[in-house]
Model the fold of this input.
Amino acid sequence: MSPPRLTIDMRMVQSGGIGTYLRQLAPRVLARLPSPHVCLLGRAEILNEFPWTKQPGVTVVDCRAGIYTVREQLELPSKIPGDTTLCWSPHYNIPLLFRGRLLVTVHDTFHLAMPQFVQGWHRRVYSRVLFRAVRAKAAAIVCVSHFAKSELLRFCPTGAQEVTVNYNGVDGTWLNGRPSHAPRERPYLLFVGNVKPHKNLSRLLEAFQLLRDKIPHDLVVIGKREGFITGDARAIQKASAMDRVVCVGELNHDHELLRRFYCHADALILPSLYESFGLTALEALALRCPAIVSRVGGLPEVYGDGVMYCDPYDISDIAGGIYRMVTDRPLRQHYVEAGYAVARGYNWDDTAERLVALMGRLMA
Done:
């Protein structure tokens, strides 16, 4: 008798935060399963680049349906093997027609909490339908913070399944390694994140304008800038036109250049209007880059006293925090040390252990 089959939707393996989540957790899950019998759904040519997809018991099934599309609802159920015991969806866009047992990770409920940033009524309807379906169909749901869980239960209160919290992590190589060569000669501040309205890049740019004559820093913007249903074209145009603002574009989490940017920045600024975890802040802290983050959502829960907080709606408060961080060296060093201590409390191995334990119960 063959072992239970786990099917994982890997279509977002190259995306930003969810891509990092999958690339870190999928190989750790495979390594911890007692007898791997796993199907990975996604673009075969991409998945086959990862060595851990070639281990015994792992099958790659080519699946090219885009996320948030009608096609994904038609294609996914036909690609999930019939002997699947558990299907893990790392995002809320679950296969509605799949009748088997589902495990779903909910990173946030941004599309429900801030519908003003979701372009098109059909996209807002689609997200509402899918979130409600998650509560109706999932055997279990994993949220990345208690804030994310409370928001899910607030917007979708009807459901009988177990909803657990399993924090994100950081790889040990980030905590123990520090690239030496700086990517820029001038001092700089750092923004890392997909350029979407709720990431609040526009207000950060205005705050930076207030500081330009007071500090010598550039502002480096790293992140995907297009291809979203919630893009921020105005922020992109403003950033491209401003002097001393450097738009690098998207860098993969595994890219050595991204680590170098973190390591040598005087501060990371994450001024989001809505955030359940804020993985980029954790990455920065792990590489001893102090962070200034919004006092919103799950950020205080996750980062405690390890970061400096700002009001994301108050441009002068954002600017004031940046100025203090880069001019008060003892204060900056305090946040370097406090932030590193926070980062050491989160690691992907613990996240994987908890996830595999949950999977084991669901597949028993």
Residues 172-343 form a domain with the Rossmann fold fold (CATH 3.40.50.2000).
